[in-house]
Specification:
mainly beta, two-stranded antiparallel sheet, 75 residues
Length: 75
């Protein structure tokens, strides 16, 4: 939340993506501000906005992998 709006992230099933949106406290209007291209974490706090509404931060997954190992003749 900034001084004049509430910001939130919503998943759009049709567009298959997360969108940053704002709800203006003075007009009650909801606007899409941008799209987050990579998966966003759902664990709080996942998204935050500065008081002046000029800066936003969020947790996202840039890279995910795993190592698979085979151990033969293990005793």
């Amino acid at each position: 939340m900034s001084n004049d709006a509430i910001y939130f992230v919503e998943f759009d099933r049709q567009a298959k993506g997360y969108f940053i949106q704002s709800y203006r406290l003075d007009t009650g209007k909801i606007s899409k501000l941008g799209r987050i291209e990579k998966p966003i974490w759902s664990a709080p706090p996942a998204f935050s906005v500065s008081r002046d509404g000029q800066r936003m931060v969020w947790h996202q997954t840039d890279h995910q992998d795993a190592d698979l190992m085979l151990v033969e003749n293990f005793r």
